Records
---
Amino acid sequence: MTEPRRPGEARLQRLAEPEKDVASGTRTLVVGAYLSRHRRAAAGRAAAPPPNPRSFEARLDEAVGLAAAIDLQVVDSRIVTIASPTPATLLGKGKVEELAGIVRSLEIGLVMVDAALSPIQQRNLEKAWSAKVIDRTGLILEIFGRRARTREGALQVELAHLGYQKSRLVRSWTHLERQRGGFGFLGGPGETQIEADRRLIQERMTRIERELKTVIRTRGLHRKSRRRVPYPIVALVGYTNAGKSTLFNRMTAAEVFAENLLFATLDPTSRAIKLPHGENAILTDTVGFISDLPTTLIAAFRATLEDVIEADILLHVRDVSHRETEAQAEDVAQVLREIGIDAAAERRIIEVWNKADLLSTEERERLATLASRERAGLRPVLVSALTGEGIDTLLATIEQHLSAGRPSYLVTLEPSEGASLNWLYEQAEILERRTDAEGRILASARISPEKEPRFLQRFPSARRLPSRL
């Protein structure tokens, strides 16, 4: 028997669903609406967040890539330089009319504006162009909505959707309104309906937040259980499409979805890896970051990003073949700062310079020289997740970071003490093993601080060795 729906539940479901008209194959115009460089310089001197340092062409390319991530048919893309934003439409009247002609002539069904649009601007542009309009935040939310596979991911995306949609509810009049549904294209004439929608959305957001608190508690219990094992946690972070999932697959022999798409991975995945001297670690793949990532998404995904906050090592994966790699690195650092991690001050971050297979010989040599100038603990690792180049060096670097400050001991065992030797292999890192003239086993072992008491209880005659990396 079907459970009866609560009043308003059917409408809330329509409001919470992704926009049905943002479908694969929709003929799309991408408009990069960017402040002129003079305005960007002024914005940089103000108290507002720093302006995006990328070139307009690079930003437009990324916007087209976002549209392609959900299989929109990008028919045309244009850069529009804004000297002074227009409150009603963001763009000037002449530019709005020019783009209206392009929309008509190319039979465009959707215009993606690579900027943050206010609800009024979005509605006015839809009227002027007689087409759906979606801004950067709306498109990223749409992508996340389609990528979420787990219950947790779906809840986090829905929370972000609803927070975005709540801000889209604006006062309107019946003769101006056309029926719209979901993902920022909400319907319903009159203020009374808007207030009802706002209440429905807020109630649903409150329920989701309660469910996510349970998720956070569960994740906390999982982390505690891992600490009891204990295995160190290594988390992959980086700009979207930097190759994190390909690197994850290479290091774990897993088959996580990895494709040349923005936001190919959304839900976190964890697998065990073995380090050079036998220690196990847990490697976690996480959602990619992007410039101008909506704050609603950062807030909604905080439960997932707790794994990043709690990790022992962060692998910052960079696509060093990308022309905007430095700007992408700064975007990742900005998101990390928003969740309380100062990349500049963190000793647990290892930069992984990925996609070495796409570099010229000259560029490889230049990057190798740059890396060699860094101190040993801060030195980036050049790898190719696709070919496997540099992976052994990366694993050794992870081990060095984890072992920094861990004590090492020399243990002497009789040939008959096979159980003790097995314990060492399971609980410690065997750095060196040899046999002396009398047949005794000499093993140099590194032990984690939490296991050191048990180690000394089992091997009271072990001799402490000088610290080493």
---
Amino acid sequence: MVYQSNPEVLPDSSYVPGDLKHVVPGNECRLLDRRRTPLRVLDVNRASGLFVVEVVDFEDTGARWELPLEDVGICQFAHGSAEASDAEVADYAQIVSRLDQPLTIEADPSCRANSEARIASLRREVGTWLQAESAFLASGAPLDTKSRTGDPALWNDLRRYMTANDLWTVESAFAVQYVSNPASGELVKGHRIVLAELGLAPFEGKQVRNPDLFAGSWSKRRRAEHVLHRLAFMRELLDRLGHSSVVLYRGLSFSGQRQARRNNSFTSATFNLEVAMDHFCDDDPASTCVLLRQPVPVEKLFMSYLETEQMNRQYKEAEAVLLHDAASDLF
């Protein structure tokens, strides 16, 4: 098994669909994912309209996720769960009405051209740094894309490069959040908005709910620097290792017919067929399953398990994170 699961999981009939009245600290619930990840409600942030849950089993045990109140329906709660008062539910509904608003930012081609020019300039700096500092390149080791574990020497290269450019705190926190749950809170959303402003991927989502999203070390400028340096690092590293593209897989399953592909700015795929097959999930005769394999140009690759230590901790997914491409039906 690629992922942990509970072989004695209770049937859905033991639960009721999540509703605003169930958002009560202390209530146990579970995510409506394939393995029914168990959660516990910890708190409600009325200012941002997010409720905080703790993962209580599987690889990410102890992680805390922030979920929008309006998305409580992605959870199910045990019969007899505590219920909020009518006044609290009305307050939650008012918060949802105020904050659940769409936001769309197109990717301007002229901004993209400027960003690509900056990436090309940064690549020259990365090349000089790799030539002088990379322990991985100095070792002469090949890039092993068949293993489900990256290379510690390469992890350390990325850490030292980002530290040298005063971007390690942003890199580390972003990677931890993305691995655990990119939809939790708004940290990843901030990068998605900056990607659109850089012209690299359009943003389709909801308005900013955290007034401090772009404050301090998470300013738009620093986020943009992180995005551009990371893309430059990936492209230069893979080019020096002789890779113009990488072969990636995705496994998808849907209830009923295949759903339209959503633009989440980033797309997760895997270097490993076994991982993709676990997502393919062909054991449900009522579901639609899709298995994809495609060589992907390295220009689309934002981060991967090969150089990202955080992608080698609780999960072994051989993950690759790509920039959204509306022209690609696969990735």
---
Amino acid sequence: MSEIEMEKGTILVADDNQDMRELLTKLLRVNGYRVIVAEDGARALEEISAQPVDLALLDVMMPRRTGFSVCRAAKSRDETRLIPIVLVTSLGSAEDRMQGIEAGADDFLCKPIRKEELLARVRSLVRLKRYTDELENAETVLCTLARSIEAKDPYTEGHCDRLSRYSVALADRMGLPAEQCVALRRAGVVHDIGKVAVPENILLKPGPLDAEERRVMEQHPAAGERICAPLKTFRYVLPIIRHHHEKQDGSGYPDHQKAGEIPLTARILQTTDVFDALTTNRPYRRALSLEQAFHTLREEAGRGWWDAALIDAFESMLHASPQLSAAHAAS
């Protein structure tokens, strides 16, 4: 098989019926796909987890694990949840189809399988997987760039990871929807990516910035938003990037938003960002204790900078969570 044919994609065929496995395998290989086979559900899940797969064709009624079970397990894991899964079944009831949908199946094929229908669905879903991979690669590049910016300053080591943990935990405690929690996890890493546009002599200056340097620095949230804007999966991340340096009294940047105008997710990241800065060592001072940090946060909230209610919620969460408190202590 040529390299061009191999690029069509890798398909997992899982069926306990040998004749069906051989039929599907032959049909897919003739059309240029690489095929992995599994004779039961447990083996199918092992194959999905062990190597890159562009699409899985799962028989519903298999020994050891059903197709429903394999689908549910694959969709629950971060590393496999984006693999398209087609359930192949002779079951035609609405209840069976509903069970497949609840398990996370992307499509269904009914036996006996029609060649044209199979190949059309395979082509469509493999193409979708390629688009998803491109988006994931773009996100990886952005996160790598963000971490390289963080690495320039030895005093910010681990800052992004802590912000992600703190922000997601606080959002979850407040009952924010899952997509907002995911956005905060991503924003914790990329919130300062716009600093790539800030010259190093400004970015790493040990003393106070002059007026022009401050003007340049204050452009980084808008620059970060522009960098991440092409990724549609970052639509909930963009407001966090742009507005996490705003202040309650309108004295922040870049848009001088006030109080409730500032998105809640941006205020959450802002709260954890300032807390982390206060509780880590800096060239000009030692890290503050947890109690000192919250005293400072409340003083600054009194000046009209931060959201006092979020400070209270964050402090309460840290006291109630030994694991997060340990992360603070280790920072």
